[in-house]
Design goal:
Length: 138
């Protein structure tokens, strides 16, 4: 898939970057101080993790370590609706222009508005991968 659309439509399939891995290590270090028996298993899982979706096993039971599933689903849904809306409105605009009804790009207003919604949801989702503070639940 296109590397630009992948984080929006398949956020759990995004490969872990070095920054993601460093942040995950820092989170895990903070979390396992309070529950040391699980530290070795979680470290092994973290070394084997290749995608952001793999981190769900690593941080199982650690609150606020990863975005909730609902947020990930919301990101996928809002992004898909936004992309579909952009394409449909652009095609309609081009067809109208082909028949002599060329007008300014009116579709930009809704595309920009929905794009801002996508940006907020994406930023919220990304913030979970960037923060190093976590809550530990037992």
């Amino acid at each position: 898939m296109n590397t630009m659309l992948e984080p929006l439509l398949l956020p759990d399939q995004v490969d872990l970057s070095e920054d993601d891995r460093r942040t995950a290590v820092a989170k895990l270090d903070r979390a396992v101080r309070k529950t040391p028996p699980q530290a070795g298993d979680r470290q092994d899982l973290l070394l084997e993790a290749r995608t952001r979706g793999d981190l769900h096993q690593v941080f199982d039971g650690i609150a606020d370590a990863l975005p909730p599933r609902g947020l990930t689903v919301a990101l996928r849904a809002v992004s898909a609706v936004w992309l579909l809306t952009c394409v449909v409105q652009f095609v309609i605009w081009v067809v109208l222009a082909a028949f002599g009804h060329f007008d300014w790009p009116w579709w930009l207003w809704s595309d920009i508005g929905l794009g801002l919604v996508v940006a907020v949801v994406w930023w919220t989702n990304e913030s979970y991968y960037r923060q190093t503070d976590v809550l530990v639940t037992r």
